[in-house]
Amino acid sequence: MAEVNAMMIRAGCNFVAKNPVLDLKRSGFGMPVFGRTVWCNRRTTGRVGNGVKAVMQVDLEDAERLRRLEGLEATLGLDIVAERELKEKGFLGMRKTKLVCTIGPACSAIEDLEKLALEGMNIARLNMCHNSREWHCDVIRKIKKLNEGKGFCISVMIDTEGSQIHVVDHGAPSSIKVEDGSIWLFTAEKFEGSRPFTVQASYEGFSEGIQVGDSIVIDGGMATFEVIEKIGNDLSCRCTDPGLFLPRAKCSFWRDGRVVVRNHESPTLSRKDWSDIEFGIAEGVDFIALSFVNSADPVKHLKNFLSTKPAKSVRVLAKIESLESLQNLEEIIEASEGIMVARGDLGVEIPLEQIPAVQEEITSVCRELNKPVIIASQLLESMVEYPTPTRAEVADVSEAVRQYADALMLSGESAIGSYGQKALSVLQMASCRMELWSREENRENFLPHYQLGVSLHDRIAEEICNSAAELANRLSVDAIFVLTTQGHMASLLSRNRPRPPIFALTDDDSTRMALNLQWGVFPLRIELSEDIEANIWRGIELVKSKGLVKQGDSVLVVSEISPARAASMASQSIQLKTIV
């Protein structure tokens, strides 16, 4: 018990031990454990209320107490894929890295969406650069139908187009191959349909300052053209690097090995972006990812705007895809509720060889600041056309998992590729294998801890979660259960990357959907009351009734009741329980 006491002392509390004799080795987790309770009481003043109570309890309770509680007919809302994975692989076999799929023409039918869901999709991403408003609305409603009717728990993210003006479209509904030496006209002229070897640009002044001899790089290198003639505001170009040309592709202009600096100012959020955001709010999306965020200001602006809306809470993510965003990285992460590392566009702005180190740095800072991070762009790019990935792509995916990224994202692989389901399967298998290796190497023990909390209440919550994760690892518990209203304690536990899965029990639907992005967190729905003990017992009994835990399993329970719920008392606790 010296180790247990030492870990609890980190919260700076005074402990009183009751029934001081406890032999963990002799008792084991599958047998009754009696008589050791460690209590910590602190009084705080101010906005938190009259007090904060931190509790660690090692005890065995009578399950009959819970059976007398009402409301046990409630549904848990655990994703059926996670439930299946738990039953087949056990607690430690559950995949903790989350998977995001971009939805496009190749997977927008409800049958295809269900296949992706069954393969492990946690979040469906809709890129507002593509397709019509009606199309997006139809996809969102299909996903909600799968959630409600099939038992999935899939969150929805929309991705704003952003202020990048260099968007070009060849007019075809799908990708086309550009041949070496072919001549193409890039024009700002607006016309319906498509014309042979003609590309529409999204901005009338796209060719301003561009010279003959400059290069146009499509989607970070998918294809390259050289400007051979300027015809008014149009550009006649020759393909110098053949490749795949996607609909509404992004392009950048290069001169002498460097990106051409354009002398124009445009807001991060365009008029179209605001319209798309209003649409997303009306349709009840869970995340909004802002494109081309260069400072914290647009993130704060959007969050302030969302706070005025009566609809459910929507989380704001920032996409890191420019040199300027890297220069303001920490302030952007602090302002956001998550980060997407858009490596494709970022690779246009910085040298290619810097991408791996920058990715690792962003991932590390996000974990330090307790913000989820998505690694995106070209994870399995070859699978847009081919049924198997390259070994280098698998190594790239595994490296992102090794860095403890919260989520991996498919873009064109799922949106327009012929093998989206297979690509998702590759992410799933690679993630599970690398997570197993990380556990075997005890890599979570080498993760540094940085204090986030400023107030006493926040610092205690942080220390409780740090200690809970350490206890869970040292005592080899089967699972961690956290009762949380807004998801804060669940995210603090996730930040520690513990070995057991984290089951977050909440009564707030927006919190439940937001936790889909957190590493190792599996959100469940349960009615919570102000009685912490009743909440704990109700949660355990519901999980037990589903067959997700069995006799002899040991679970660490971390509970949180916010000051708003508990009137003048805010409470957090840690309890170790054995299922009987």
Automatic annotation (TrEMBL):
<dbReference type="InterPro" id="IPR036918">
    <property type="entry name" value="Pyrv_Knase_C_sf"/>
</dbReference>
<dbReference type="GO" id="GO:0000287">
    <property type="term" value="F:magnesium ion binding"/>
</dbReference>
<dbReference type="GO" id="GO:0004743">
    <property type="term" value="F:pyruvate kinase activity"/>
</dbReference>
<dbReference type="Pfam" id="PF00224">
    <property type="entry name" value="PK"/>
</dbReference>
<dbReference type="GO" id="GO:0005524">
    <property type="term" value="F:ATP binding"/>
</dbReference>
<dbReference type="GO" id="GO:0016301">
    <property type="term" value="F:kinase activity"/>
</dbReference>
<keyword id="KW-0547">Nucleotide-binding</keyword>
<keyword id="KW-0670">Pyruvate</keyword>
<keyword id="KW-0479">Metal-binding</keyword>
<comment type="similarity">
    <text>Belongs to the pyruvate kinase family.</text>
</comment>
<keyword id="KW-0808">Transferase</keyword>
<dbReference type="InterPro" id="IPR015813">
    <property type="entry name" value="Pyrv/PenolPyrv_kinase-like_dom"/>
</dbReference>
<comment type="pathway">
    <text>Carbohydrate degradation; glycolysis; pyruvate from D-glyceraldehyde 3-phosphate: step 5/5.</text>
</comment>
<dbReference type="InterPro" id="IPR015793">
    <property type="entry name" value="Pyrv_Knase_brl"/>
</dbReference>
<dbReference type="InterPro" id="IPR015795">
    <property type="entry name" value="Pyrv_Knase_C"/>
</dbReference>
<dbReference type="InterPro" id="IPR015806">
    <property type="entry name" value="Pyrv_Knase_insert_dom_sf"/>
</dbReference>
<dbReference type="GO" id="GO:0009570">
    <property type="term" value="C:chloroplast stroma"/>
</dbReference>
<protein>
    <recommendedName>
        <fullName>Pyruvate kinase</fullName>
        <ecNumber>2.7.1.40</ecNumber>
    </recommendedName>
</protein>
<dbReference type="InterPro" id="IPR018209">
    <property type="entry name" value="Pyrv_Knase_AS"/>
</dbReference>
<feature type="domain" description="Pyruvate kinase C-terminal">
    <location>
        <begin position="462"/>
        <end position="562"/>
    </location>
</feature>
<keyword id="KW-0418">Kinase</keyword>
<keyword id="KW-0460">Magnesium</keyword>
<dbReference type="Pfam" id="PF02887">
    <property type="entry name" value="PK_C"/>
</dbReference>
<feature type="domain" description="Pyruvate kinase barrel">
    <location>
        <begin position="94"/>
        <end position="423"/>
    </location>
</feature>
<keyword id="KW-0324">Glycolysis</keyword>
<dbReference type="GO" id="GO:0030955">
    <property type="term" value="F:potassium ion binding"/>
</dbReference>
<dbReference type="InterPro" id="IPR001697">
    <property type="entry name" value="Pyr_Knase"/>
</dbReference>
<keyword id="KW-0067">ATP-binding</keyword>
<dbReference type="InterPro" id="IPR011037">
    <property type="entry name" value="Pyrv_Knase-like_insert_dom_sf"/>
</dbReference>
<dbReference type="InterPro" id="IPR040442">
    <property type="entry name" value="Pyrv_kinase-like_dom_sf"/>
</dbReference>
